[in-house]
Amino acid sequence: MASYSPPLRDMRFVYHELMGCDALTDLPGYEEFTPDLIDPILEEAGKLCADILAPLNRSGDEEGCRLENGVVYTPAGFREAYKLFREGGWTAISCDPDYGGQGLPAAVNVLVEEMICSANLSFGMYPGLSHGAYRALAAHGSEELKRVYLPRLVDGTWTGTMCLTEPHCGTDLGLLRTKAVPQEDGSHRITGTKIFISAGEHDLAENIVHLVLARLPDAPKGSGGISLFLVPKLLPDAEGDPGPRNAVQCASLEHKMGIKASSTCVLNFDEATGWLIGAPHKGLSAMFTMMNAARLAVGVQGLGLAEAAYQGSVAYARERLQGRALSSAKAHDQPADPIIVHPDIRRMLLLQRATVEGCRAMAVWVAKGLDEQERHPDPAVRAESEDFVALMTPVVKALFTDLGFESANLGMQVLGGHGYIREHGMEQHVRDTRIAQIYEGTNGVQALDLVGRKLGAHGGRYLRQFFHPVSAYVERHAGNASMAPFVGPLGKAFGRLQQATAQVAQKGLADPDEAGAAATDYLRLFGLTAMAYLWARMAETAMERAEAGDPDGFYAAKIATARFFMERMLPQSGALFSQVMAGGASMMEFDEAAF
Amino acid sequence: MASYSPPLRDMRFVYHELMGCDALTDLPGYEEFTPDLIDPILEEAGKLCADILAPLNRSGDEEGCRLENGVVYTPAGFREAYKLFREGGWTAISCDPDYGGQGLPAAVNVLVEEMICSANLSFGMYPGLSHGAYRALAAHGSEELKRVYLPRLVDGTWTGTMCLTEPHCGTDLGLLRTKAVPQEDGSHRITGTKIFISAGEHDLAENIVHLVLARLPDAPKGSGGISLFLVPKLLPDAEGDPGPRNAVQCASLEHKMGIKASSTCVLNFDEATGWLIGAPHKGLSAMFTMMNAARLAVGVQGLGLAEAAYQGSVAYARERLQGRALSSAKAHDQPADPIIVHPDIRRMLLLQRATVEGCRAMAVWVAKGLDEQERHPDPAVRAESEDFVALMTPVVKALFTDLGFESANLGMQVLGGHGYIREHGMEQHVRDTRIAQIYEGTNGVQALDLVGRKLGAHGGRYLRQFFHPVSAYVERHAGNASMAPFVGPLGKAFGRLQQATAQVAQKGLADPDEAGAAATDYLRLFGLTAMAYLWARMAETAMERAEAGDPDGFYAAKIATARFFMERMLPQSGALFSQVMAGGASMMEFDEAAF
């Protein structure tokens, strides 16, 4: 099984050279995050991931989680690894210093998250869910709740969950039935069943903080009648130390295709004690404040597993001797050539590579937007950044996870039969990455978010944050011969995206089913165009930097991958364009009974 | 979990109405296979699959196979099911009547195979591998071997295997090391280790007949020094009854991503007794005589699982109430609409449907070619059919299994979180279908077969069997307004395929890496064009038939699916065309050290 090697060189390229994130030190609160601080953080995170988390990935998958008498046991080694993770301060890196956090920029955090996902996605679920709970509570909780819970979520002694889904409702939370009855002391009694609750019960932390969506007795029907509650597994005493057990139980663990070391629970709340977070009936919007970050984080799961699969398939392609190069034998001293000589193997490796590096650049781009949205002194810049992040969030979530799954499958294809058996760990990547296309809003829901909420909103205001820079970039490089192999295809794809956008916006106004029918293909077209923009910029940066020398060939490889992307991946945009332009009649006119 | 419902109506459409397979009764040996015989056979096969095999699919996956003291136990129920399968004559349907077979046309057999794969792919592996061994033995075995082994393989009391792969060699069989030492009595002693041997050891049959590739002492190096041997698990006595145990042992079972009820063995041969099949050093070509049939069969696995996934996702989409239709609520008496109202759900269902019905038509088309190749009285027709089957085989194998995997994943996406847990069986379809892209020659190898062996061979003679009929069809319908929505897109895709073919042939002559770099995308372009041709023909047939009435809406749905295919699936051909035309430099010039 291939070991994990943190892609630090490319991370530094994206952070410092491509995206100029060193300028984040200009933002209030980020002054100290100079390159000499950032690089060692990434290195340390990489070590933790490679040395501690990655070695537990396959054993965790084999062993899975175990439920015994209401207690969930994580696989061997997870408790010790979590202790190291927590003590190393990794649960705190992107949290508010007021609550013990380190306040690192999102643009750094996203790279740390990528490495955690590459090394051990199941492990990453526990701190990942905690961080979601942290964010919702930090944004909407009362001072009293924040004082008790936030420091413990930040230092990782407690973990958190997000309890949304019920057996009959997932995407449509308006249907949810869990009840909350107010008590005289200001608390509530929560009763209901939640399913698919990641990290819902486990043995890593001394307490678990459930954030639960439920209905108050006077709640209006539908999604406008949902409130958010904090329900701890153990009720804290006056000092905040875990006290008696609350009435929430893990009824069973789901048997899943992958991420088997992540405990996915059915939770029964039986008059459990909880406290309201935010205003009554405003639970969904409170949830949505952490949703952007959570969706970006799920996108990064796709990226992380694509990187892991890439590394595994490159290692195999170098080692596996099979057949001879089509042109002429290469490894004359061996009985056969390594399969990396074959064009079709290289095609698959480069598809993975173009995916990984393109998505990584996009992840940092959007995360930097998140930093500016939160900290830029100019409110106009903050507003623009907010638009940009809102626009790109569904694209990142769906594109990265779709491409991540494709990359894991390409990895398996490179390994052939050896990819299908457990030994090399590649089939686990395929199984693990598959969930990312589904949870935190299926990729179809992301596409509807893009065409339904982001495209037309405020007269297309969100779109400007993408269209303007790309349009300006294409114009600026119009006469540049060395950039033509990149800007030419980008311009073509961008033109298609503009046309498709106009059609989707126009037709969708008259008939929302038209927008819905276009949504998934439109999102992919948008995502590929965004990747093309970033690949053109990466080629440009690499060419500039290479003028001062390229001893390890890093920049040459970057330019070569950019070329591959333009020639062999971006052409999909033409097909997607045709499919969008064909409209939705072929779907909507199909007789439902005939399916 | 959705039950399996045999798609008999569509099978009858393809067999009788579209492909005119009733005319197969004109071929010698097929005289009796009139529609009144064929339809009940399909019905009976459907019943067996729905009632006996499908109910064991999920339990078989959960339980898997078990190795104890060299004995492999299949999951509960498999022995009883195999007994029924065998006694029902299903192991014999496409075998030679001289050995107890029923001699059914391949065009029928392919439909039976599809249903078996839909119901229980793991189960189907056991008779499937047997059939491969039957074919190789029937084509190349001595009369004595055939007399003893064929009747037992045909009636299923014994099963067979194909032992090719070794730890260090899969695609490149020239590297294989298993040795065969001739004995004075004419037998051989076989020694070596084989891996990934499907049905290598199990408890379904009283004996197992291994067909083993090995090297004779005087064998030339490479693939021209491989011979084929028959090595029974139990050595038959003079009457052909199973006698003493031969020196072949199952050392371990592979732990696989899917098809867990199919036993995949590491087999150790330790001076096992075997007999040569065919000529010395001609083992690979003997294997290749059954390879076409085996590859078509693996393609059909993709089709079968796409159908199963389609049925599962349609059932879920009708039942799952979630959200409201984008245009206006449909199910006013329900708290939400079934998700089948949503365009993006319909898009996924129609992608599956267009895949399934298109592949089914292609499967019967090619299988009919196989029948004509074997039985047509006119040697010219036989030769043409052989060319056609040789050309289409890699396309069917790779296209069907790629699309089958995509369809299974679309099924999972329709089910959302419920698709990722085991309960509904959809994640099993994803895991099971994934292997079909790998075994029997990876899909990359199929693509190389198409561009390397089939495209240029005999001055492009193979190609004519596809290009001529399609070209004639497009011309014939050029002025037909009602066919324009189908023939227009077909003509465009076909034009692209012709241009791409010219480029691949030309560039590939000068540099085989150019053909290799184009291969996978070219194969998909070819496959989509072939599907477009069949979808046009299906639309045509449906329109003609509908004139006499369409009470159940079958023909209307067919025409609507054809339209969907042309508008939402075929446009991919444009992207594939661009990718092929971009050439291979971006892959081959990438510095190997930089991966």
UniProtKB/TrEMBL annotation, chains A, B:
<keyword id="KW-0285">Flavoprotein</keyword>
<dbReference type="InterPro" id="IPR025878">
    <property type="entry name" value="Acyl-CoA_dh-like_C_dom"/>
</dbReference>
<dbReference type="Pfam" id="PF02770">
    <property type="entry name" value="Acyl-CoA_dh_M"/>
</dbReference>
<dbReference type="InterPro" id="IPR036250">
    <property type="entry name" value="AcylCo_DH-like_C"/>
</dbReference>
<dbReference type="InterPro" id="IPR013786">
    <property type="entry name" value="AcylCoA_DH/ox_N"/>
</dbReference>
<dbReference type="Pfam" id="PF12806">
    <property type="entry name" value="Acyl-CoA_dh_C"/>
</dbReference>
<dbReference type="InterPro" id="IPR009075">
    <property type="entry name" value="AcylCo_DH/oxidase_C"/>
</dbReference>
<dbReference type="InterPro" id="IPR046373">
    <property type="entry name" value="Acyl-CoA_Oxase/DH_mid-dom_sf"/>
</dbReference>
<feature type="domain" description="Acyl-CoA dehydrogenase/oxidase C-terminal">
    <location>
        <begin position="282"/>
        <end position="450"/>
    </location>
</feature>
<protein>
    <recommendedName>
        <fullName>3-methylmercaptopropionyl-CoA dehydrogenase</fullName>
        <ecNumber>1.3.99.41</ecNumber>
    </recommendedName>
</protein>
<keyword id="KW-0560">Oxidoreductase</keyword>
<dbReference type="InterPro" id="IPR052166">
    <property type="entry name" value="Diverse_Acyl-CoA_DH"/>
</dbReference>
<dbReference type="InterPro" id="IPR009100">
    <property type="entry name" value="AcylCoA_DH/oxidase_NM_dom_sf"/>
</dbReference>
<feature type="domain" description="Acyl-CoA dehydrogenase/oxidase N-terminal">
    <location>
        <begin position="79"/>
        <end position="156"/>
    </location>
</feature>
<dbReference type="InterPro" id="IPR037069">
    <property type="entry name" value="AcylCoA_DH/ox_N_sf"/>
</dbReference>
<feature type="domain" description="Acetyl-CoA dehydrogenase-like C-terminal">
    <location>
        <begin position="466"/>
        <end position="591"/>
    </location>
</feature>
<feature type="domain" description="Acyl-CoA oxidase/dehydrogenase middle">
    <location>
        <begin position="162"/>
        <end position="271"/>
    </location>
</feature>
<dbReference type="GO" id="GO:0016627">
    <property type="term" value="F:oxidoreductase activity, acting on the CH-CH group of donors"/>
</dbReference>
<keyword id="KW-0274">FAD</keyword>
<dbReference type="GO" id="GO:0050660">
    <property type="term" value="F:flavin adenine dinucleotide binding"/>
</dbReference>
<dbReference type="InterPro" id="IPR006091">
    <property type="entry name" value="Acyl-CoA_Oxase/DH_mid-dom"/>
</dbReference>
<dbReference type="Pfam" id="PF00441">
    <property type="entry name" value="Acyl-CoA_dh_1"/>
</dbReference>
<comment type="similarity">
    <text>Belongs to the acyl-CoA dehydrogenase family.</text>
</comment>
<dbReference type="Pfam" id="PF02771">
    <property type="entry name" value="Acyl-CoA_dh_N"/>
</dbReference>
<comment type="function">
    <text>Involved in the assimilation of dimethylsulphoniopropionate (DMSP), an important compound in the fixation of carbon in marine phytoplankton, by mediating the conversion of 3-(methylthio)propanoyl-CoA (MMPA-CoA) to 3-(methylthio)acryloyl-CoA (MTA-CoA).</text>
</comment>
